[in-house]
């Protein structure tokens, strides 16, 4: 489904609701009230407005919002009665192919959780494995009611965010940068070959990009920006072994660090992501920088 | 070619030389003199004895050893006249498929280097890319004679080490361990799924191993040891995103760190390699530990 | 005041209450109910039992516990009517010497907070600066009621923990270890001089200890243990510049890293603290290990 | 002694030599030949020109330069016959107050070293401890002649660099910056209090500076620049515990990280030093950035 432009969306309440009513599960009132703050300068701003609507809602409305969500691997899922969005989300987490034992475990946990809290267990599962889902479930079924309510609202917002990014074209504010520092010699790592590839399904965007670091250890300009900078998983590969061998820093015959992959996720393509590498021949680290 | 056991090798000088004479390029005297120190408790000890032979050799012998090496991508390589060992090594670095421009560059550098130092440019290339070779070549052709001699001897020892590991079965002293620390919460990362796979050609050894960290964030016992712990490249994959999501530490809808690969090389399978992970949802690092 | 031994404390309910009734501010019922679980093998176990009592208390009891706490820099503090414990705690954070402007700010925040939540703002202030207190106050006065209640209970438990450690002798289970890794060369940093000193007031314990790392980069045995291992702040000093200079790893005339201090806090002297150093001449890191 | 301005120095060969002849120990020819490249835009450029002179000198001249240096703690030192520069340098390393046993050890090592190499052991000792000097001595007395010659020339250049910085005013090109990242939450650490102090003797420069990080986790402008940015040791103190407590990130009653000191050396005040902090409540790291 092609993404809608933010401007087109804000042009009329009808267009707005046509696209955004399903963002919060079976709760069109969230989109409806958020429209009062239109237009929005970014998907980030739109998402914030929708979260504000939920924060300002009554207790009963929030609980109704939580209750509107389906059980994970629950009756509705088995009967094929989920919303289109929920169906895709649960399948991506492998919840469509559970063993009988796992199904029984989900049934037991779903029942215990509903009994304890009065609403279904909610988890943004699209990027979660079966193992992660069961781990979170086991922990959360024993949490406090106040804690779980806050946790479920946070999960609902995560689900909404991923649905928003699927439905609405992001603005070109975000970009990806890199910086490589040589911590064996205390200087920028100049002339290091770096490549970037997308991990998983990214449609028809190019699969791989190649760079070489400049004298300051940086790439000349953003590695990705605009439309090409989509949410999802990416992987740098840094030619660390090659770099140190060429520089004459002693490395082993089979270097401890040769090609170093760094896999990372982009959650908000309207933000700047700085993902650097600090490396010697014997250690490396990365972090979300700024 | 099946590897020879160290004991069989040391049983007679004939057996020793049959296998080890080619370890130092066209210089059987290294193996011959090293035999005086037989038997050897490990490939590591054998390699050290051979390095000691070179260290004790005369200047003329060392220069002859350097001169016994072929040019990289040189006349002998093009004519198919390399030793079996050198042929494989140069091909693995992609030197068998150079463009005419690259060939001309190698020819120019080889000539300039020989002119400057009186022996060929020597680089342990099996794990090096064409790019790394040219980078090192360009830097080293301008180095001092004393520096280059020391560098070439170091490269000759690296080449010998890789040939030794191909020819002789290593002792089972080495092993691989892991430790995962959660630096968001200051505790061992317990219950994290970890897998280990070999990268590249490892013959008929199993391809992948799966683990879960224990209460101390460690694996129960070595991940690899004995024959299964061969020299080469490996990759851990740590389920960091899953771990933090299950633990309730806030992560994004698309987590910055999901599955974290850590690729590393084992140079000496007779040593202990400790390759840990320190991670929060926003940073990670690794290093060769002990 | 000399600390009481855990055994003596558990010997009679009278002794228990004489020491522990004031641990939770004006709420002797916590100690009273915790006594049902006596004896305790450690201060850690005793503290856990007291936290369990609070977790099992009624809503009204918990709110009464929160309300039993004084305002920070409030009327009682100015009038000298705090409990002995609270007086010391507020003074250590510099709340005894506020400027008129700061006092006015505290008065405003105290009033706003009580108005919003119905109990006083609670913060374990003994190790907090005036700046930290005002920062936390400004943020928390706008938080949700559920969040603040959880936060205040957490702070109450921190206050109780520090009072417990002042009153009861800890068991000798805890100890401090170190490990230094040379990430420039990928090996343990052997032969590095390391010293350890206490920061702040530690009574009559020795002020400084000197060590040298062994071949594995570790100290021979714990740096501190038993009675000498008290809660509080400590500082390692690692002679990193000296180590690399002696090893022949190039460093500048004025090394980037010379003597490297690492300051850290021990919160629970009944636990193992592993505080290692990873260093090259150009970077270092530390973490709470295990 | 007031420092001379670079311009005044380059105005006449006489002025140049008056100040720079003693920079290379008893070897005024280095300054003399370097003057051919005057004027110099920076002390860095002047130092490079002097190093180039040494690199272009004959073998005999270089060996004479090495031989012009005094033994460490040697006869000349005991007799008070060192150059003014050497006297200060040896005293700062504590070589003026050796025990009889240490003196004997130095005498033994000096003799063995001269015997092996034909010139005295040379080490830039101003920032080295007695322990570092002895450690380097013990290792280097067994090194190769080619290695030691290169090492001694490197040490001679370090000594010259420190003498140059004492004698000549540096240009205002260098500056010091900082950046603090919160790796618990994956964002810049905004609003963290940071101070900077000089360690050791810095004459009449201010002793301490106070800052607060801005929204990007940086200081507004350089922490030091121009004349105030002198070579020597410095120490940041980051209020990490206070920052996380105010932010509501859980920390212990006695936080593992409270005030975090980071001590570092500035070797070249004409360069940019970026000395950042990456921190969670349980780990931190720093490095020389760019």
TrEMBL record, chains A, B, C, D:
Gene3D superfamilies from the UniProt entry: Oxo-4-hydroxy-4-carboxy-5-ureidoimidazoline decarboxylase, Transthyretin/hydroxyisourate hydrolase domain
GO molecular function, one term: hydroxyisourate hydrolase activity
GO biological process: allantoin metabolic process; purine nucleobase metabolic process; urate catabolic process
Record field: catalytic activity: 5-hydroxyisourate + H2O = 5-hydroxy-2-oxo-4-ureido-2,5-dihydro-1H-imidazole-5-carboxylate + H(+); 5-hydroxy-2-oxo-4-ureido-2,5-dihydro-1H-imidazole-5-carboxylate + H(+) = (S)-allantoin + CO2
Keyword tags: Decarboxylase, Hydrolase, Lyase, Purine metabolism
Any one cellular-component term (Gene Ontology): peroxisome
Leader sequence segment: none
Superkingdom as given in the UniProt entry: Eukaryota
Family annotation (CDD domains): TLP_HIUase
Pathway: Purine metabolism; urate degradation; (S)-allantoin from urate: step 3/3
Enzyme nomenclature, EC number: 3.5.2.17, 4.1.1.97
Protein role: Catalyzes the stereoselective decarboxylation of 2-oxo-4-hydroxy-4-carboxy-5-ureidoimidazoline (OHCU) to (S)-allantoin.
Family of the protein in this entry: Belongs to the OHCU decarboxylase family.
Protein name as annotated: Parahox neighbor
UniProt lineage: Eukaryota, Sar, Stramenopiles, Ochrophyta, Pelagophyceae
């Amino acid at each position: 489904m092609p993404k809608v432009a933010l401007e087109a969306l804000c042009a009329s309440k009808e267009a707005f609701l046509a696209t955004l009513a399903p963002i919060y599960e079976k709760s069109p009132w969230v989109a409806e009230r958020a429209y009062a703050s239109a237009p929005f300068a970014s998907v980030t701003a739109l998402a914030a407005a929708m979260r504000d609507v939920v924060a300002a809602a009554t207790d009963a409305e929030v609980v109704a919002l939580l209750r509107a969500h389906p059980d994970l691997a629950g009756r509705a899922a088995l009967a094929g009665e989920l919303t289109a969005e929920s169906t895709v989300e649960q399948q991506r987490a492998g919840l469509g192919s559970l063993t009988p034992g796992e199904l029984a475990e989900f049934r037991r946990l779903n029942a215990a959780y509903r009994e304890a809290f009065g609403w279904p267990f909610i988890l943004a599962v699209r990027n979660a494995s079966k193992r992660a889902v069961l781990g979170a479930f086991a922990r959360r079924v024993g949490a406090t009611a106040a804690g779980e309510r806050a946790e479920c609202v946070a999960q609902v917002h995560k689900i909404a965010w991923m649905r928003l990014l699927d439905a609405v074209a992001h603005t070109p504010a975000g970009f990806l940068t890199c910086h490589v520092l040589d911590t064996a010699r205390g200087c920028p790592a100049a002339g290091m070959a770096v490549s970037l590839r997308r991990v998983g399904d990214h449609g028809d965007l190019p699969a791989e990009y190649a760079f070489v670091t400049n004298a300051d250890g940086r790439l000349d300009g953003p590695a990705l920006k605009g439309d090409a900078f989509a949410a999802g998983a990416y992987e740098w590969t840094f030619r660390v072994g090659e770099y140190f061998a060429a520089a004459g820093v002693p490395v082993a015959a089979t270097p401890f660090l040769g090609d170093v992959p760094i896999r990372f996720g982009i959650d908000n393509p309207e933000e700047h992501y700085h993902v650097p590498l600090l490396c010697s021949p014997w250690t490396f680290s990365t972090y979300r920088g700024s």
